[in-house]
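Service request form, structural biology core

Requester: graduate student, group of Dr. S.
Request type: structure prediction, single chain
Budget code: on file
Notes: please return the result as structure tokens.

Sequence provided:
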Amino acid sequence: MIDLSAQPWFADTEWLAVPDLVETLGVSVSRVHRLFEEHVLLAAKVDGAARVPAVFLVDGEPMHELRGTVTVLADNGFTDDEALDWMLSVEPSLGTSPVEALRAGRKAEVRRVAQSLL
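Core staff response, request fulfilled:
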């Protein structure tokens, strides 16, 4: 598992634990875990517990564009940790982090970049 705490974006990231997600999304704990399994949300171990970057939620729901982008990354051999790291790190070809580009409506561009990664 990648030590995500060593990444430069880590300190600036707001993390939501499973109980926070249960409350925010209005779903059960088992549903939250299914969201992880189905790559609707990506989680990392932070302080020993699964946590999700708050930026992956929009209006109290998982960002719809995330799942397809994670699928593209997985198809290119990325692990969940590597996908999470890429999503939150500044991608030079985008001029921002992929998650921020997705939030700005640049889904096609983000996925094109993700497809080009090897």
